[in-house]
Amino acid sequence: MFILTDGKNYIMENPVQQGVYISTSSPVMAKEFSFKQARTVLNNRSKKMKWIGSYYMVDKETGQISENSSSYKGNGGVYIGVNDIKFDDSIITRIYNEAKSITGLAGWSMAQIKTYKEQLSIGLSKYDSAVSDIEHALQKYKEDNNGKNPQAHKAAKIGYLLGEIRDKHENIKQCIDYIQVFENAITYNYTIEKIKLELVKAKHTEYQGRTEYYQIALNILDCGGKQNAVQKM
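The structure corresponding to this sequence follows.
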């Protein structure tokens, strides 16, 4: 990298106006240029840059004055030896992958999002009712059998059925929260970075019990442990 100096002053970039150069007496403030960038600045013949005529290139690392003439306009040696730059080829792969990810998005319209919200709402209502139905079925069993609970194998089957329904219920609630992020993204013109942040925030975390029965149930199930983060409801 190179700095530009007249032996006393240095060239720095205007902190409030990118691409505009001014003089400074502080070497710390001197802007670092690649060989090609420095030569382009020195070859600028506009009236605003006339003052730069006495400046020359100095290698930032060695302090040596560049042997190349500032008036030379060719590209010979621009990326050879000390003028060479290191280019990270992995950036190409990252950009291709990012472009592929973005172009692979469905890009739902507001109409499609509203359709999904309606379908999810119907599904949520169905599985709410399913849980209620099973609880009432258990109550009916007790009433029909003089207050007795179902046999263990029957209770286990009911437990599995409830678990399956609640999994579907939770997945629907999670999707509703994700869909809300997509809707807000369209309404408020979110950037991709903002969408990613809001999707992370919308992800449900581990449930925290509201009563002592949650811990009692965990102990019965031999889960143990303390309650953790609050789940988004």
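Residues 228-233 have pLDDT under 50 and may be disordered.
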